[in-house]
């Protein structure tokens, strides 16, 4: 703009020496970073090689999806595809056009990422799945809008992988080498937020060895550390974001992550493209208000649940009992969901065999990553935590009891799975008898080992003990089933 003003003979109130230095630096940059300068070629006029810039033309006729750069190219070189691109924008937007177009995929991914981080994604399940399925189709088609934009590509990779879509890390292979990244990708992508997005994507590994992601993780982590050390990040929110990302894994506890995201959420947030960009259809204030209300509502429920849990053996000396109750509850819930909702027949039979073999589980092996995770959690909880602590309380090993309680529960869960899949209708007595185990009465009696009194072997095998668990189950099972139906069919009050 300064060069053009000088050509037009305008008298600018600028220091001549500074203008000369600026123009000299600009000329130097054009010679040194021609591929980078192409992105902002409209600012260099005749100083730039427009034929070289046209090598970056995309299939839609644009240069970098930038109306400005594309329009500038027409001043120097006529190209029919560029004309069609610009005409299509004017047909869509009239007298003004966006900074970058198209920008749909990245904008939608940003919304998905935002509602996930704020913890309100469960309210938008259908919409999120629609965005991701559309993005996945574009990914498979190698859509330029994804693969020619680092942020869009890495965001798509991270979110698609987190939601179970099969995307390979080879798509990020060109970002493996730091020096090559900065020399070939372009100066428009060297900002901190882009490197942070790449760093987060590199953490989503689903295989034991993914060298591409490991190398990207290493150099982006070092880059971000140096940015902090050199105080190169001026924006306070971005600095906090980077500090947190380096200190904590992306696989953090959801509610902790949600609270942090709420604290850092910027209602006035905008993206820096060629100029500032804000999506006109999204009200950040409304999103934040929903996130705060939802978080507080969930916290109220969690506090109520915690109060109920603390009322069970609340005395300080029963700390081991409370922890045992919590751990066994979490694992039982995961197992229950597997047998009730999304476990395959092969997975369920495999988990039963693993518990039956226990210390010889390696002779069975895992038929899925989920089974490995679930069994390892159960195995570690019993072998390395509950059994040793129970031994200290009881003066004898009760590990076999802990194992058998869980084995009985999952075998009864398997029976319910067969009833459901084979469309069988058990009698009420059979259903209740089986349900006393699947409701968890047996495994929750694990707590008894941590309450102080030593339980003799014959107590645990007595008829009285069995009847106690059975009658508790006769009450708990119908109540649980009734509450599930109420929750499932109750209207949502806004």
From TrEMBL:
Gene3D superfamilies: 1.50.10.160, Farnesyl Diphosphate Synthase, Terpene synthase, N-terminal domain. It catalyses: ent-copalyl diphosphate = ent-kaur-16-ene + diphosphate. SUPFAM superfamilies: Terpenoid cyclases/Protein prenyltransferases, Terpenoid synthases. Residues 50-246 form the Terpene synthase N-terminal domain. Residues 312-483 form the Terpene synthase metal-binding domain. One of its GO terms (biological process) is gibberellin biosynthetic process. One of its GO terms (molecular function) is ent-kaurene synthase activity. GO terms for cellular component: chloroplast. InterPro entries: Isoprenoid_synthase_dom_sf (IPR008949), Terpene_synth_N (IPR001906), Terpene_synth_N_sf (IPR036965), Terpene_synthase-like (IPR050148), Terpene_synthase_metal-bd (IPR005630), Terpenoid_cyclase/PrenylTrfase (IPR008930). Its EC number is 4.2.3.19. Pfam families: Terpene_synth (PF01397), Terpene_synth_C (PF03936). Keywords: Magnesium, Metal-binding. PANTHER family: CIS-ABIENOL SYNTHASE, CHLOROPLASTIC, ENT-COPALYL DIPHOSPHATE SYNTHASE, CHLOROPLASTIC. This is ent-kaurene synthase. The lineage of its organism: Eukaryota, Viridiplantae, Streptophyta, Embryophyta, Tracheophyta.
